[in-house]
Every structure is written in structure tokens, then in C-alpha cells.
């Protein structure tokens, strides 16, 4: 991702693509220019998410910084969190003022935030259902009093829908939204990594189990949704 961001920043080549392999669907591509999208090019769920941000925002998985830049321009204090050094370099060149090169689960809780913003299937970083407890514990430490998580995800049930409307899912297997990904760019392959797509009802259940309340903020056009998660007192 970082190398692709660097290349696009210096060339503006709209033909650049990142290939995405997964164990549940055919290989797909992410146009690199999409990582540099403007506010008016964002999906409706992302626009809604930005409008619900408040206070000091931690933009988790900020990539090339489209959300951080918009929030900055509209008066928010925002910190961009990103694991890719190349993406961090490009965010700095693009004018993102506060950048942390780190992983969410390793991030120090010395600073607290009013909004944790998690876009582009943001729950994916959790990786699996078994790590939700770790995620909510970390989020609670990072949130200021009255803080919120604004996050989007998708229900992958559409991949298992049959012609008669039934679902072909093996209940004894792992949760169907636990996916394995691998990305490649210009022939260079990254490592495989787990990614979690969680349906809204299951997210609501686990949020409640770990002391959070879930509110659905918006529904997308294809089994995707935007949610707000807030710690219960």
C-alpha cells in the first residue's frame, strides 16, 4: 500500500492498481487513485461517518489521508494512525499534521480521543471474532469520557446466498466473515493477513457483551452499514 501511495503521489498515474486476493472471492483490484479520493468521491457511508466525527479524532488506518485531510480542513483536531511508512510519508507531504506510525493494538494510551474513526470496513483490523474482546478493551482505554467509535463493516452473507434465498454456510466452521487477504503491487506480494467482516447483529451482540452500546447510523446499498459504538457507564 505504501509503495503504491508513493508512486501515485509522484506520477498521478490513474492506471495503477493494487491486486487483492482473498480466500472467499475472486481476485479484485483497488485503483490506487481511490486511496487519494476527495470528499465528493467518497461513498455515502464515509461522508456520513465524517459528519458524525467530533472532538479529537483518531483516524485508524488512515492510508493516504483522505479522511484526515477533510477533518483538518473543517476544524477538527485529528491524528492519523497508519502502519505503512510509505503511506505516512505521503500523508505528511499532503499536509496531514499529526501522524502516528504504529499499529492500533500497540498504540500507547497516553492520549485519549473523542472519536475513533475506522473506515473501509474498519472492523477488519480485528481479524477474527476471538479478538473482539481485545479490541473493545483497547478502544475503551483510548476513548476520552463520552467518546465514540464510528466504524463501517459488511455482512458477507451475500457470498453464500442460494437461488432459493437460503444460505449455504457450514455452522461448524469459523464465522463466515473471517477472511484471509493478500495484496500485491507491481508483482510484489505482501504477507497474508486476517480481516473481519462482521454483520451488524453480531457486532451489536459482542459490543453489549463487552460493555458498549451500538447504534446503526446508516445502511449501505450492499450489505454494508455504519455504526456508532459507545461505552456504557
UniProtKB/TrEMBL annotation:
SUPFAM superfamilies from the UniProt entry? S-adenosyl-L-methionine-dependent methyltransferases (SSF53335)
Keywords, ordered alphabetically:
Methyltransferase, Transferase
What is the name of this protein? Methyltransferase domain-containing protein
* Transmembrane region(s): none
Give this protein's Gene Ontology molecular function annotations. methyltransferase activity
Superkingdom per UniProt: Bacteria
Does the record carry Cell division as a key word?
no
Q: Does the keyword Transferase apply?
A: yes
Q: Name one GO biological process term.
A: methylation
UniProt domain Methyltransferase: residue ranges = 57-147
Amino acid at each position: 500500500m505504501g509503495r503504491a501511495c508513493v508512486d501515485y503521489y509522484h506520477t498521478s498515474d490513474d492506471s495503477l492498481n493494487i491486486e487483492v486476493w482473498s480466500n472467499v472471492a475472486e481476485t479484485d483490484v483497488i485503483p490506487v487513485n481511490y486511496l487519494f479520493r476527495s470528499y465528493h468521491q467518497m461513498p455515502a457511508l464515509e461522508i456520513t461517518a465524517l459528519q458524525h466525527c467530533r472532538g479529537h479524532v483518531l483516524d485508524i488506518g488512515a492510508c493516504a489521508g483522505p479522511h484526515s485531510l477533510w477533518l483538518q480542513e473543517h476544524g477538527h483536531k485529528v491524528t492519523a494512525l497508519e502502519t505503512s511508512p510509505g503511506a505516512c510519508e505521503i500523508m505528511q507531504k499532503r499536509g496531514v499534521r499529526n501522524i502516528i506510525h504504529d499499529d492500533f493494538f500497540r498504540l500507547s494510551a497516553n492520549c485519549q480521543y473523542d472519536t475513533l474513526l475506522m473506515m473501509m470496513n474498519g472492523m477488519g483490523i480485528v481479524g477474527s471474532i476471538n479478538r473482539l474482546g481485545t479490541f473493545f478493551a483497547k478502544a475503551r482505554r483510548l476513548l476520552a469520557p463520552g467518546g465514540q467509535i464510528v466504524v463501517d463493516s459488511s455482512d458477507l452473507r451475500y457470498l453464500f446466498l442460494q437461488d432459493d434465498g437460503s444460505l449455504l454456510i457450514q455452522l461448524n466452521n469459523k464465522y463466515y466473515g473471517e477472511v484471509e487477504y493478500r495484496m500485491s503491487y507491481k508483482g510484489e506480494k505482501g504477507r497474508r493477513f486476517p480481516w473481519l467482516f462482521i454483520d451488524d447483529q453480531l457486532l451489536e451482540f459482542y459490543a453489549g457483551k463487552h460493555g458498549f452500546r451500538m447504534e446503526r447510523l446508516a445502511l449501505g446499498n450492499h450489505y454494508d452499514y455504519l455504526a456508532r459504538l459507545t461505552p456504557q457507564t
